[in-house]
């Protein structure tokens, strides 16, 4: 009985592999990270390429030093700020 269940399980795994199923565990040379899968990033990009792409879209607040996405940051006279309050000059 146990031998029959084991053979059925092995047959199912072999069938799934033939159909193109790949297990999520293991890090072979052809597997990509889950981050790359979720983001739809081409597997030719390395993590350094991704980091540079993210860093290019960030600016640093002139007052507190916080890194903020460029599209949500405030700018005036060449200064970047994370909020309107930090954009105003200090007294």
Q: How many DSSP H or I helices?
A: 4
Q: Strand arrangement, largest sheet? A: 1-2
The whole-angstrom Rg is: 25 Å
Distance between the termini: 82 Å
Percent of sequence in beta strands: 5-15%
Global geometry: rod-shaped
Low-confidence stretches: 33-37
Rounded mean pLDDT is: 75
Helix residue percentage? 40-55%
Q: Biggest sheet, open or closed, and with what strands and sense?
A: 2 strands, antiparallel
> What is the N-to-C succession of helices and strands?
HHHEEEEH
- Number of E-type strands: 4
Detailed description of the structure:
The chain has 91 residues and is α+β, with helices and mostly antiparallel strands. The protein has a domain at 58-91. Helix content is 41%, strand content 13%. It has helices spanning 2-18, 34-39, 47-56, 84-87; strands at residues 58-60, 67-69, 74-76, 79-81. The strands form two sheets. A two-stranded antiparallel sheet has the order 1-2. Strands 3-4 form a two-stranded antiparallel ribbon. 4% of the residues are buried. Mean pLDDT is 75; it is low at 33-37.
